[in-house]
Structures are given as C-alpha cells and as structure tokens.
Amino acid sequence: MREALSWQPDFEELVDQHQSMVFSLAWRLTGDRGLAEELAQDVFLELDRHLQRLGSANHARYWLRQVTLHRAADALRRKRAKAASLGTDLWVELEERHVLVEPLDMDEYSPLGRRIEELLAALPDSQRAAIVLRYQEDMTPDEIAVMMQAPLATVKSNLQRGLKLLRTKASQTLKEFVRGT
Amino acid sequence: MEHNEMDNRDLAEFEQKLRLAMRHREAPLGMKQRVLARARERRPARHGRWWMVKRIAASVVLVAGIAGLWSGVTVYHQNEERRKGEEARQQVLTAMRITNKTLDRVSDKLADNGR
User: Between 1.10.10.60, 3.40.50.720, 1.10.1740.10, 3.30.70.890, what CATH number should domain A1-100 receive?
Assistant: First the structure.
C-alpha cells in the first residue's frame, strides 16, 4: 500500500528494467525475433499511455507480462490467418525460424538450451505459454492461471504435458549433451 | 520406488536445465532508444489531438456565434423594413385622407355656388 502511494513511475527506467523480459516473452511466444521486437515496442508504447493507471512496480511488471501475452496471441492468430490464406504452414515456418536461432548467444547458451528453444516453438500455444511463464518468469501455476484466465487444472495439465513433450523430444539431445561432457 | 525417485530427480534436473535455457535474452541493441523515440513522437501528437479538438470546438462556437449574429441582424433588418413600410403606408393613408377631405370641401363649395 505504501509502495503504491509512493511509486513514481519513470517510463525510461521501466523500459530499461523490463525490456529483456518483454522481448524474451514475445520471442518465445511467437518464435519470431523481428515480430518480437515489434511487439515489445508496441507493449512499451501502450505502457506509456497507461502509466498513470499503474499503482506499483509489481503492478507494472504484471501488466507488462499480461499485455505481452495477449499481444503475442493476437499476433500469432493474425499470422496463422495470413498463412492459411497463403496456404503455408506456420509451424513449419516457426520451426525453421527457431532452427535458425541467430548465433548472438552461442557462447551463453548450451546446445541443450538451444535445442529446448527450438522444441518450444513446436508446442501447442497454451502449453508453450504456460511453460514460458513458469520457467522464464518463474510464475506459479496459480499466477499463470490468473494471467491466462484459465482454470488452474488446465494450466497444470498444460505444464505437465508441455514438460513431458519437451523432455521426450530433448532426451536425445540430453543424452548427447551428457555424453559430450 | 527407486525408479520413481530416479525419474523425479531426472525431472527436477530437466526443469533446472529448462530454467537455465529460458533465461531472459538481451533485448535487441537500441530497442530502448527506439521505444523512447516513438514515445516522444507520440506525445506531441497526443497534445496535438487535444489542441485540434479544442480548435474544432472553438470554431464551432465561433460559427454558431456568427450565425446567431447574422440571423439577429437579418431579423432586425426585416423588422425595420416592415416598420418603414408600415410608416409609408400610414403616410399614404394620411395623404389620401387629407386629399379626400380637401376634395369634399371643394365639392361642398361648388355645390354652394351652384345653389
């Protein structure tokens, strides 16, 4: 309460503080780096317009995650509609994009890490969103359920299924990774 | 039991690796500057929109004022014309009444002379 009263939002500071979070969320949810930057910029511009309505730093972080999640879902829907009208398979396109993860972070990411990012793109939307919020943002299933406006049981099921799918698909890479170390 | 424990350990290990793999990525270079520049561009535009709304409102008020004034002047002129017309009509009627009386008097005199 005291934080809410004393909180003086500084737009530039908020961008600085949350840009990597918003960008990472947008990228992992859409699987498209260019689209992710576009989305992240739009999310921050919306933040600029809503700044006075946010009561605390936590509220701002929650708001950013939620708006990014919704905008990414909208962008994927638009992409799918466009792909359907053009007769192309979006998932094939996403898979290709993730396979071509640019080599900027090669040193920072392990082969398993890169493989996980690739596999993430092949998960169904709801599972991918739940996994990203759980393991990137460290949110609890309850918090994810509130944010995604979904029943807790659905979120838990999406997490379990997504995790199982990822683990199965990554097991081969994991074996190679362990063998290699 | 032992298999289950191993499976749980594997899962926990996998979750740990997943957390590591899903750390925040660096935002593209210059993204912050691009966001701030776009935000700055939008701010004057927002003020501009308000300014435009105010201008339109002021114009509407001005046009309404001019229209009101114009109709007031028109009504005044119409009334003035009507008043002048009425005045002229009254003058003509008075002149006719005088002429009529004069003619009556002349007619009476002629009648007296004839007798």
Answer: 1.10.1740.10
pLDDT in tens, A114-133: 777 788 888 999 999 999 99
Contact yes or no for A39/A30 (Cβ under 8 A): yes
Kindly report the average pLDDT of chain A as a whole number.
83
pLDDT score at A104: 42
Domain residue extents for chain A = 1-100, 101-181
Distance CA A24, CA A40 (A): 9
Q: Are A170 and B16 a contacting pair, CB within 8 Å?
A: no
Give the SS3 label for residue B29: coil
Instruction: Among A115-119, A142-146, B30-34, B60-64, name the one with the lowest average pLDDT.
Output: A115-119
Q: Cα dihedral angle (A111, A112, A113, A116), rounded to 10 degrees?
A: 130
Q: Write out chain B residues lying below 8 Å of A166, CB-based.
A: 14, 18
- A155: tokens are 């979120």
- A28: number of CA atoms within 13 Å, CB side? 33
Partners of A29 on chain B (C-beta within 8 Å) are none
Q: Which residue of B has its CA nearest to A43?
A: B35
CATH fold of the domain at A101-181: Arc Repressor Mutant, subunit A (1.10.10)
What pLDDT, on a 0 to 100 scale, did the predictor assign at position A99?
44
B interface residues, A as partner, C-beta within 8 Å: 11, 14-15, 17-28, 31-32, 34-36, 38-39, 42
